[in-house]
């Protein structure tokens, strides 16, 4: 009887939107944390303890700059 009651509440049709919202929120949070972890300010190796010293003066690390034109493109060489 307890098993039937558990499954009745767990698989209720009314609970499906809750699962979708919680799953979507969790997925969005994981995507955002991944996006933050791949930024130029995060250091994954100890080979270069000061990664900001390897950026050239004409090199931009921003995704979008409104008033700045540059020749080079930033890329992550080491992981």
Automatic annotation (TrEMBL):
Pfam families tied to this protein: B12D
Residue spans crossing the bilayer: 16-34
Recorded superkingdom: Eukaryota
Keywords: Membrane, Transmembrane, Transmembrane helix
Record-given protein name: NADH dehydrogenase
Organism, scientific name: Marasmius crinis-equi
């Amino acid at each position: 009887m307890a098993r039937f009651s558990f499954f009745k509440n767990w698989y209720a049709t009314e609970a499906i939107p809750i699962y979708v919202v919680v799953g979507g929120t969790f997925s969005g949070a994981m995507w955002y944390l991944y996006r933050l972890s791949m930024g130029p300010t995060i250091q994954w190796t100890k080979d270069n303890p000061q990664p900001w010293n390897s950026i050239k003066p004409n090199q931009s690390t921003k995704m979008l700059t409104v008033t700045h034109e540059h020749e080079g493109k930033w890329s992550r060489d080491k992981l």
